Amino acid sequence: MDSAGLSRWPEVLMLAQVMLLYLLTTQLAKIQSQLKLVLTSAAVASVPAAAGGEVQPQQSPRPSASSVGVKLARKPTLDNLLPDVPKKGFAPACEWALLSPPELEVAQKVRAWLGEARFATTPRDLLVTFIRGYAYRADWAECAFVFLERALGWREEVGVGRLVRDPPLDRALFEEVCPSGPVGFDRDGHVVLCERIGQTDVGRLFEHFAEESYIQHQAYTREVARLYNAANSKAKGRRLYKVVYVLDLRGMGVAHLNKRLLSLIKEVNELFGWYYPETVYQFYIINAPLVFRTAWSIIKPWIHPITAAKFAVLGGDWRKRLDQAGISLTGGDLPRRLPSWKAEAERLLERETLETLSLGYMPHDDLASLGIQAPG
Q1: CB–CB of 362/128 below 8 Å?
Q2: For helices 211-236 and 341-351, what crossing angle results, to 10°?
Q3: Angle, helix 101-114 to helix 140-158, in steps of 10 degrees
Q4: Cα–Cα distances in Å, from 319 out to 36, 247, 307, 329?
Q5: C-beta separation of 192 from 325 below 8 A
Q6: What does each C-alpha distance from 304 to 5, 30, 300, 309, 310 come to in angstroms?
Q7: How far apart are CA 279 and CA 281, in angstroms?
């Protein structure tokens, strides 16, 4: 190797380290709840769970809203939750399965603690993700309530509904410097989202957007994606609250080594890990440089197989691999310019009211079991 090649090695190694840091701190934070349960649950490590990521629960007679006996202790708080220890033999529920009798019982406990008025306005998809996201814990109902109540408080504080109706300032510019958007569906009907990490314009991002503004824009993106999921579920008649992420690293370079950017992204993803749990189905990392793929092959054995199975690091053959995975991209390929979340929100609101969309999707049988009137 010539001296010029040797001189580039420190930069290449640093880039590899940052790419890995980006992957591990940014993306693994999004599946925080899965990490907690898979590391100690042998049942989840079965072949069916690794292949599909979910286990279809056995169905037993579903109690009605009036038949679910709910004996409540006093309203739980964060301080009196038990240690975070997964239950033995735990297996996660299938995403589109109807709520099981134990899940319905937890829902009724959460309902009682929230109170009827607040329960009535709680997004139904979020209710299910919190119930299922903490099902691995011994204090299941208490955890689901405490963290859901906290998320509802955050939604009220930032005015999530207002954000969707009135997007943050300079939204078009933000979408230009941080491109992301919906690009297709997988064979199960999940929405496929693309984030072009390598095309993030770091200089313009920090020139025009302060930290608070960045978080506000990301909250807008995340909430519109939730509404997009709700509309997709309604159209398909199937509960689908998880998404497939395609992370495009093309163009990622030294400019993305910015510690401020990495710290901010980590903060946002940890925030949404708490407020939007159980919402990631699969990650595909495309246009990954050789140095990244090599580094991934080194660290992959250190990660639990179920977690590692959620990630596919792809090179130049990514189109073929996505097709093999049953992913259909709108128009047959990733567009040169990703769809605008603002434009998608406007289209959604042309077809349904924000109030209807914000309640999320829940199957009619689940609504009936909870004694909730189905929308007309």
Answers
A1: yes
A2: 40
A3: 50
A4: 32, 13, 23, 9
A5: no
A6: 36, 16, 8, 9, 10
A7: 7
CB 195 within 8 A of CB 247: yes
> What is the pLDDT tens value at each position of the chain, 376 positions in all?
443 333 333 333 344 444 544 554 444 444 444 444 433 333 333 333 333 334 333 444 555 444 444 556 689 999 999 998 888 888 889 999 999 999 999 999 999 999 999 999 999 999 999 999 999 999 999 999 999 999 999 999 999 989 999 999 999 999 999 999 999 999 999 999 999 988 999 999 999 999 999 999 999 999 999 999 999 999 999 999 999 999 998 888 777 777 888 888 888 888 998 999 989 899 999 988 777 777 777 777 776 666 677 888 887 889 999 999 999 999 999 999 999 999 999 999 999 999 999 999 999 999 999 999 877 6
pTM above 0.85, yes or no: no
Q: How far is CA 163 from CA 156, 228, 280, 326, in A?
A: 11, 15, 23, 34
DSSP string, 162-218: HHHHSPPTTHHHHHHHS-EEEEEE-TT--EEEEE-GGG--HHHHHHH--HHHHHHHH
Neighbour count for residue 307 (Cβ, 10 Å): 15
Which amino acid is located at 320 in the chain?
A: K
